[in-house]
Amino acid sequence: MTLVRENCRGKMTDTGHALAFNWHQDRVSTKEIARRLHVSPSTVRYNLNRTPPSVRTSSRKPPQLSARVIAARAKRHKLVRKLAMKESIIVGKGGKSGRAKKTVNTVHHFPSCSLIARELASKYNIDVHASTVRRDLKFLGFEARRRPKGPRQYEGDELARLNFAKAHLSDDVEKILFSDEKYFDCNDHGTVWEWCAKGKKPKHRGYCRWAPKLHIWGCIGVGERLLVIFPRRSRVTQEVYIRHCLKGNLRRFKGKVLMQDGAAPHTGKLTKKFIADHRINVLPNWPPRSPDLNPIENLWAWLSRLVSDMGPTDEDELEQFVIEAWENLDQEEIDELVRTYQRRLEGCIANGGRTLNGLPPAPPKP
Predict the structure, then answer these.
(1) pTM, two decimal places
(2) How far apart are CA 162 and CA 348, in angstroms?
């Protein structure tokens, strides 16, 4: 039972006030009452000479702001909103050969409170602290969020993603196999945060630029998963991709649609000829720089954390742990991840073709 109001100096609840008053009538000392209620004696003396909290009227009134102050605050709010939303799109130059597309980058000019406060002081002669700007932003409905990482966008990417999502929204996800390559290394890719005892420091996240690494190819679908480990220290060419990834899995591809991105080994002449000769159905027009649409990217994140927690130290252990972690994955979770493909397309359409910051929420169950 709460006898003292939280964050209220010396103010009791009705129950605490009644107990203190009754004990005081029974000639219990103020110090003993304070001990029973777990408050200070001054709090008991303060409340015994006052009416119960439920019938008290607050004597404090908010300060009355003048019209000049109200107008100045409204002007500052308008400027803070304007600066917080100021952004521009910068289009970079393409490659010298003309084949590379132009880069498109959205720049937020005033992403922090300190930058907004500095601009208010230099340009508008309004001298306020960054904490005041922070209160203004919260009052205006802004929220501070962590900026996600993603691939650099190029001119035409949003339109290509939007057209692809609209064209394939009705695809049967049960027949699609999502594939991708991934590098695994012996660096620590575990959790960033760690609970520590008082006075202890978190463990160091080991990182080495030239850590032993492994190049693998994976493919997942509803009830399906394939794993291929490329030869060590070898370059993945069209011949290597055909020999290790396509040739040995022709039966698995029958009746399915293979999704692959636009990497050079996937779109070369030899690969296209092999796919056509063996009648492998491929998901057409996969948009470039669209890892958010591929469910296997989330699987790589799971697998990377699992392998990192095992602590591999060389290439042999790394290969062993990757295979072990892959075999221990739950197929039902993989199937559920694959079925998020439709939600990803719907989110892409709702976002105007821009990169998704996170997986769209699941629809409510009927």
Answers:
(1) 0.69
(2) 7
